[in-house]
Amino acid sequence: MLHIARVKMLNSSQLRKMNSSQAMDELDMAKDLLGNSIRISRKVLIRLVKQKENEHTLVSRKTGKDGPVAMIILLQSLNALGLLEITKLETQESREEHQVEAVAALRQCISVFKEFGSVKSLSDSSEVKDEYLSCLRRLSNFMSSHMKTNQRSLEELNDEIQHVEVEISASRRREI
User: Fold this and answer.
1) pTM to 2 decimals?
2) Could you tell me which of 28, 94, 160, 167 has the fewest CB atoms within 10 Å of its CB?
């Protein structure tokens, strides 16, 4: 669903100059697909967390690998949703609505990472951290270019970006 949504977003950008209503329809379809992707990956993560909390349940290796994959898909979907709302912001007049939705989608990346970050197998994956960092950077860029933002919140966001970059760098050095 995530990849189909990305294709819809690409189609929308190509249609934008020729047929703006069809371009918006493509974005709406992409938003629905991203919503489904977010919902499904979140359910998978919740199920995995519950299984890990219940010590009586044996968690298979496959289930253990599903966690990081679901987390990556969730973060990518939220990041894509943020980009979709930014795209709508640039093409429509109802700026404030899309501005709020873009920030909300990108802030959900932070919430999700913190919510499921307590599960070591999810938060330790460098691929998960890469996706989290991508969300943080998009949010920082958006806030600094499109919003009158509290300087302190932007500094906190940039501090988190630097912190995650250091963690990723350290984990990559250990892999070598």
Assistant:
1) 0.89
2) 94
